[in-house]
Amino acid sequence: MPPTFAALVTDRTRRLGTRLCVGLDPRPGLYRDPAHLREHTLDVLEATAPYAACVKPQLAFFEALGLPGFALLEEVCAAARTLGLPVLLDGKRGDIGSTAEAYAQGWLAGGHAGDALTVNPFLGFGALTPFVEAARANGGAVFVLVKTSNPDQADLQGGGISERVAAEVARLGAQEPGGEYASVGAVVGATHPGDLAAFRAAMPRALLLLPGLGAQGAAAADLAPAFHSGGTGALASASRAVQYADGLSVIASREAAQRLRNELNAALS
Ligand SMILES: O=c1ccn([C@@H]2O[C@H](COP(=O)(O)O)[C@@H](O)[C@H]2O)c(=O)[nH]1
């Protein structure tokens, strides 16, 4: 069995000293034409790869391009694999069981498959099963939305709901016998630094994906509580702050990724 997503990103953290997840959110309005978008997206991927533990394409931006977007996504996934970068697809999928099976087949086991996928628990914990099974069968991972980075998350995630989802993530992780980290991770916004220690403790074997670094105001210096004492267990994610660090300058993207990588390391030292 090849290494799992969790093992691959943890290995990159230890070997390359990076806890950064580079988000790819190609915004069509910023480009001359689809060819320009494609070229810039692939260039940013290549330039930032040495500083990244994984890459996170946001499916919405690829879907917005229609069929060519799916072709580009496959190209991005193939290029990431060539660069040795695990791919975490941000799709936030979730549906009734039989439809969830189709999503899981498509994104974790089939044609477009990434190595990991974000999933939405709103339909109930049973609806997560097809995703968890596909991730386990393929050495992949799912990242369950526990507490998202947006300010209005509390409308539905407050009142103890995030903590209930975190308990389920921990329960699923405890079912897996081996490996340092389980195939079931959690999304916890980097914009909630005061909550990170509690979520870290609540889900000891879960990788935490922390979106919101940079453009949403979260700072690397505040994220140390999300990590275990050895400096693993979380991936801090930035999209706009890297991809569009200075307009479409790929050099600026590389420098931003390097700076965020360094800031995350400094936060842990
Ligand atoms: O809670 C969440 C979950 C996912 N996201 C996604 O991450 C990126 C953030 O982009 P930035 O440019 O770094 O703000 C985007 O794709 C979101 O859909 C999130 O922001 N918060």
Automatic annotation (TrEMBL):
Active site: K92
InterPro entries per record: Aldolase_TIM (IPR013785), OMPdecase_AS (IPR018089), OMPdecase_type-2 (IPR011995), OMPdeCOase_dom (IPR001754), RibuloseP-bd_barrel (IPR011060)
Gene: pyrF
Domain Orotidine 5'-phosphate decarboxylase: 19-255
Pathway(s): Pyrimidine metabolism; UMP biosynthesis via de novo pathway; UMP from orotate: step 2/2
Family per similarity comment: Belongs to the OMP decarboxylase family. Type 2 subfamily.
Superkingdom classification of source: Bacteria
Record protein name field: Orotidine 5'-phosphate decarboxylase
E.C. code: 4.1.1.23
Coiled coil: none
One Pfam family this sequence matches: OMPdecase
CDD domains: OMP_decarboxylase_like
Catalyzed chemical reaction(s): orotidine 5'-phosphate + H(+) = UMP + CO2
A biological process from GO: 'de novo' UMP biosynthetic process
GO MF annotations, alphabetized: orotidine-5'-phosphate decarboxylase activity
Keywords (A to Z) from UniProt: Decarboxylase, Lyase, Pyrimidine biosynthesis
